[in-house]
């Protein structure tokens, strides 16, 4: 006789039923395999990085001038908006993991993987943004490796964000070459 706790395709019916019992845990079930607190800490550092990138791109957007720089200015604004989307996605995931997103401005720069930049000339702005994008790419690569298959939802989100960061790096490199 087949084990009553196994569905025909090998799923554990008991574990599935138990997932329905702890409603206060939201999306986090007993089957969650990652170290939730460590993932939340990682994500809060990534949140700080994204927020700092928003601020850097916004500063560059508002301070770049000259009619020959319209394309650069537009690129800075687009990137700022996309970085804000990343921050929003990360904050939402932290909440899904029953954590609290850390938006504390007093600790933002200390927690960020990237640095803020106050360059005044366009080539330095572009270079600073390229450096920050490369830092973000490597940070996300390491986070993805650390999470592995233990948290597929967070991993999928980080892979998606990293792909956009790679596009940003290509954009900055192209602008630097002009």
What this model shows, in words?
The protein is mostly helical and 178 residues long. 66% of the residues lie in helices and 0% in strands. It has helices spanning 13-19, 36-63, 70-96, 108-111, 122-147, 152-177. It is elongated, with a radius of gyration of 20 Å. The N and C termini lie far apart (72 Å). The mean pLDDT is 92.
Low-confidence stretches: none
Rg, alpha carbons: 20 Å
How many distinct beta strands? 0
Distance separating the two termini: 72 Å
Structural class: mainly alpha
The sequence of SSEs as H and E is HHHHHH
Layout of secondary structure:
Layout (H helix, E strand, L loop, with lengths): L12 H7 L16 H28 L6 H27 L11 H4 L10 H26 L4 H26 L1
Helix pairs in contact: 2-3, 2-5, 3-6, 5-6
């Amino acid at each position: 006789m087949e084990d009553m706790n196994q569905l025909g395709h090998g799923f554990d019916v008991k574990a599935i039923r138990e997932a329905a019992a702890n409603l206060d845990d939201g999306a986090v079930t007993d089957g969650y395999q990652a170290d939730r607190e460590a993932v939340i800490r990682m994500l809060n550092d990534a949140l700080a990085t994204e927020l700092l990138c928003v601020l850097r791109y916004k500063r560059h957007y508002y301070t770049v001038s000259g009619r020959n720089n319209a394309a650069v200015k537009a690129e800075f604004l687009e990137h700022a908006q996309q970085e804000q989307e990343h921050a929003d996605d990360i904050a939402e995931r932290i909440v899904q993991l029953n954590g609290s997103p850390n938006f504390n401005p007093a600790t933002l720069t200390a927690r960020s993987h990237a640095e803020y930049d106050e360059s005044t000339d366009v080539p330095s702005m572009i270079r600073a943004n390229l450096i920050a994008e490369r830092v973000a790419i490597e940070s996300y690569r390491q986070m993805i490796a650390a999470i592995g298959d233990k948290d597929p939802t967070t991993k999928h989100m980080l892979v998606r964000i990293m792909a956009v960061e790679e596009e940003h790096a290509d954009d900055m490199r192209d602008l630097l070459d002009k």
